[in-house]
């Protein structure tokens, strides 16, 4: 077993070499969310703007001996207003990332997806787990396990493209994408196998770019070379996938939680497809997972700045 967190530490080290990312933190009104933002700031990953009821944030800081004096604090009355204000600050160019505090994910994402005032783009919004699995050499991307419940074929095009772009930001030039199902052959009775085959052909036609796709693949032969060889699968992806694309949210959620609770993995979370990266953390997340989520978002923001500068040039 490779030392736990080695993969996350590499990402954090890269992100610490960047300019701290100005981050609108929506409603950091409990210990875990406020402490996570402060820890990321102290490591130089983000420059947080704390948005929420000022007295409540100050009370949490005092109760847990957290120093918030270096950080801007925007006073709003409640969590709904905090989500709206955080999105507004991004639209105004005052922040280049969002971070979830102690409010429900639906509340934050509701503000993000508002058609007139939100942060929509032409891309479907999707979630990626960047997982530190001790048995694997590098962080594993799993998508989508948190936003799209039953994604359509067109949704999956965007979900995959978002994940490929994320992999590029993390330093993988041509990531290997495994489109998962229960088997590695196309079966008309299993719709996910048909969609997997269609997605691979769409990549062949340039409708998905920047990665190497194969599917359908079962989980074992997607991540284990021995399993792929036993089944005689001739594929540049089988056994060495960087990205796992699940059929639906239920499958993705169970896969991610299985790795967390049975394989001793940590899960950093990020939402892509909006104008800026969105850091989604859970109260159950470890400190290293929170820091890794911030590091991943910082690397995505840096990649976007670089792409924007190329367009201007």
SSE arrangement:
Elements: H1 6-16, E1 21-26, H2 31-42, E2 46-52, H3 54-63, E3 72-75, H4 79-91, E4 97-100, H5 105-112, E5 126-132, E6 140-143, H6 153-169, E7 176-180, H7 191-204, E8 212-217, H8 219-223, H9 225-230, E9 243-245, H10 249-262, E10 266-272, E11 278-279, H11 287-312
What does this structure look like?
The chain is of the alpha/beta class and 313 residues long. It has a domain at 121-273: Isopropylmalate Dehydrogenase. Helices cover 43% and strands 18% of the residues. The protein is built from 11 helices and 11 strands. The chain has an 11-stranded mixed β-sheet, sandwiched between helices. Helix 3 (54-63) links the parallel strand 2 (46-52) and strand 3. Helix 1 crosses helix 11 (287-312) and helix 4 (79-91) runs parallel beside helix 5. It is globular, with a radius of gyration of 19 Å. 50% of the residues are buried.
**CATH superfamily membership of one domain, which one?**
Isopropylmalate Dehydrogenase
Termini gap: 46 Å
The Rg value, from CA coordinates, equals 19 Å
Q: What is the general shape?
A: globular
CATH fold descriptor of one domain: Isopropylmalate Dehydrogenase
The total strand number stands at 11
Helix and strand content put the structural class at alpha/beta
CATH class of one domain: Alpha Beta
Summed up, the helix count is 11
Question: Could you give a short account of the major beta sheet?
Answer: 11 strands, mixed
- Largest sheet, spatial ordering of strands: 3-2-1-4-11-10-5-6-9-7-8
Q: Enumerate the spans where pLDDT stays under 50 for 5 or more consecutive residues.
A: none
């Amino acid at each position: 077993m490779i030392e736990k967190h080695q993969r996350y530490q590499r990402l954090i080290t890269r992100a610490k070499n960047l300019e701290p990312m100005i981050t609108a933190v929506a409603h950091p009104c409990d210990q875990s969310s406020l402490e996570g933002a402060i820890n990321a700031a102290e490591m130089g990953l983000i420059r947080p703007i704390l948005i929420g009821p000022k007295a409540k944030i100050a009370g949490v800081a005092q109760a847990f001996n957290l120093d918030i004096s270096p950080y801007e604090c925007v006073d709003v009355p409640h969590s709904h207003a905090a989500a709206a204000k955080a999105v507004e600050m991004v639209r105004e160019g005052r922040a280049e990332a969002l971070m979830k505090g102690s409010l429900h994910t639906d509340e934050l994402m509701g503000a993000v997806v508002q058609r007139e005032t939100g942060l929509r783009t032409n891309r479907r919004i999707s979630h990626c787990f960047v997982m530190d699995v001790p048995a694997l050499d590098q962080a594993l991307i799993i998508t989508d396990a948190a936003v799209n419940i039953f994604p359509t074929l067109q949704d999956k095009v965007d979900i995959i493209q978002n994940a490929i772009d994320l992999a590029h930001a993390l330093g993988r030039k041509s990531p290997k994408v495994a489109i998962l199902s229960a088997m590695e052959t196309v079966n008309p009775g299993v719709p996910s196998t048909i969609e997997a085959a269609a997605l691979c052909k769409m990549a062949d036609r340039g409708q998905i770019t920047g990665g190497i796709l194969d599917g359908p693949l079962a989980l074992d032969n997607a991540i284990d070379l021995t399993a792929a060889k036993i089944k005689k699968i001739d594929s540049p992806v089988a056994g060495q996938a960087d990205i796992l694309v699940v059929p639906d949210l239920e499958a993705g959620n169970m896969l991610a939680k299985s790795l967390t609770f049975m394989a001793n993995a940590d899960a950093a979370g990020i939402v892509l497809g909006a104008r800026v990266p969105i850091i989604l953390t859970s109260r159950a997340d470890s400190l290293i997972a929170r820091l890794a989520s911030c590091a991943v978002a910082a690397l995505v923001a840096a990649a976007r700045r670089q792409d924007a500068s190329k367009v201007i040039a």
